[in-house]
Amino acid sequence: MADEKTNEKKLWGGRFSEGISDTCQEISESISYDRQLFGQDIQASLAHVEMLSRQKIVSPEIAEKIKSGLAEIEAEIINDEMKFSAELEDIHMHIEKRLIELIGEEGKYLHTGRSRNDQVAVDTHLFLKENLLKQRDELKSLLSTILALAEKHKADLWAGYTHTQIAQPVLLGHYLMAYFWMFRRDLDLLEFALNETDCSPLGAAALGGANYPIDREFTASKLGFARVYQNSMDAVSNRDYQLSYHFFVTRLFVHISRFCEDMILYNTVEFSYVKLGDRVTTGSSIMPQKKNPDIAELLRGKTARVIGNLQALLVNLKGLPLTYNRDLQEDKVYLLDSVRQAALGIGGVIEILNNVTFCPERVVENLKRGFAQATDVADYLVSHYNIAFRRAHEMTGQLVLFCETRKITLDEVSKSDIATLWGGQYEFSGDLLKLESCIARKQGTGSTSYVELERQIESAKKMI
User: Fold this and answer.
1) Which residue of the set 21, 68, 85, 284 is catalytic?
2) CA distance linking residue 133 with residue 342, whole number of Å
């Protein structure tokens, strides 16, 4: 019986006389997380062995036995019958070792013309492409959800803020559409990452290509890739497609975090702009009255996590010499996590939007208390009395101070108040201070006017 410290069980152990230490084996293993890639690894192996058979590199009989063995292994893993061991390092070695156990020596032909370097690369390309396609559909669902809410609330008033201070009245639909366009740009970035991922590295082998008449275009087509890498060294060392994905997820979560921050703030008793439903809130272990926006808070917190994954891969890649280095094994830790978090993030925002009640009547109170019509007053003085804007700005500021001192709102100012403050030559038109009129006066593409919001919504519908 072989000493447990030898590399007899390693598929690469031929030139070694002493086994790896337990500590180094623990450092070396990745099966604890890359077992998730078993489906992609088997898919790529099936395409590879079919190519080997077509190219007469292995016999059709051997190819069929390998295919049959791979199908049996896939069933074992799906049914949780495969035993995983750190000793076999990764999912690639587990599948190949099990294949040899099942079909004998013929199983050793599978690795002809490939390396774990291009094998892991094709697995991660397949995994990421599959998830990008899912997340594209999920993002479109999110956009449709926002669009439906914007149309539902296209006539409701809302507050626009700068510096977290009341700024101007806007339409609630317009506010929601701001997030539509953020997530729509994320969809564009997803498409960019998808294009970068849609490229097959299989056949690059260790780094210089294979010593057999392989057909890389065949395996690429079989696996659904649009093209193959044009340089074998680039194929095994490139992780730009993952960087693009991580940046997509990072920017997506920055937008998610901003939305969640709004919901958290607006859900407070002090604001009461929204009410979050039971399905997206949790309670307190000690305070019975609490209804906490934990889901929004957790999504906000996950933003730090995905930013960390992007940063980790950037630092990992910085200074790596060509081509493959074992440092790159860590890329799957970041990738698998970010893929999971992105799915949770998109789904979480959809859940929040489906379980939120907007309270525009409370918003109207604050618009008045915050003198949100002030800019309209200044612009009215400019257009009706030919006053320079800076002078109109100063006069309106005096009016706001007047209202604050007397604890009244702008729409409660009387003609005598205006005469006292500015003189008798100035007066307001009847609807000047109506919040709806402030909305209607806005002009230009993308403004918050009723007409422009309608146009914006119709334009967005065509995009999705």
Assistant:
1) 284
2) 12
Catalytic residue among 17, 163, 414, 416: 163
pLDDT at 13: 65
Asked if pLDDT for residue 7 goes beyond 60, the answer is no
**Under CATH, to which class is 116-157+168-214+223-360 assigned?**
mainly alpha
CA separation for the pair 219, 217 (Å, rounded):
6
Provide the token pair at 224. 């659904």
Give the residue from 163, 156, 155 showing the smallest Cα distance to 362.
Answer: 156
Token pair for 418: 């205006």
pLDDT 10s digits, 123-143: 999 999 999 999 999 999 999
The number of beta carbons lying within 10 Å of the beta carbon of residue 425 is: 8
Measured over the CA atoms of residue 182, residue 146, residue 193 and residue 348, the dihedral's sign is positive
Average of per-residue pLDDT across 277-293: 96
30 is known as an active-site residue? no
For 58, 98, 312, 457, the CA distances from 113, given in Å and listed in that order, are 11, 20, 32, 54
Element (DSSP H or E) covering residue 48: helix 38-54
pLDDT higher than threshold 60 for residue 276? yes
Tell me if residue 125 is catalytic: no
Q: For strand 356-358 and strand 274-276, is the pairing parallel, antiparallel, or unpaired?
A: antiparallel
pLDDT of 2 reads 34
Confidence of residue 3 (pLDDT cuts 50, 70, 90): very low
Where are the domains positioned within the chain? 13-109, 116-157+168-214+223-360, 365-463
> What pLDDT is attached to residue 4?
41
What are the structure tokens assigned to 60, written together?
């059709």
Structure tokens at 24: 């180094």
**CATH match of 13-109 with 1.10.275.10:** yes
| Amino acid (1-letter code) at residue 145 | T
Tokens of 33: 């997380």
Above 50 in pLDDT, residue 322?
A: yes
Q: In the CATH scheme, what is the code of domain 365-463? A: 1.10.40.30
Of 182, 147, 160, 166, residue with least CA distance to 439 = 160
Structure-token match 């030139």, residue found: 15
DSSP annotation of 18:
S
Distance CA(381)–CA(374), nearest Å, equals 11
CA distance 265 to 296: 10
- CA nearest 31: which of 103, 97, 79? 97
Query: 4 or 323, which is more confident?
Result: 323
pLDDT (tens digit per residue) in 26-52: 889 999 999 999 999 999 999 999 999
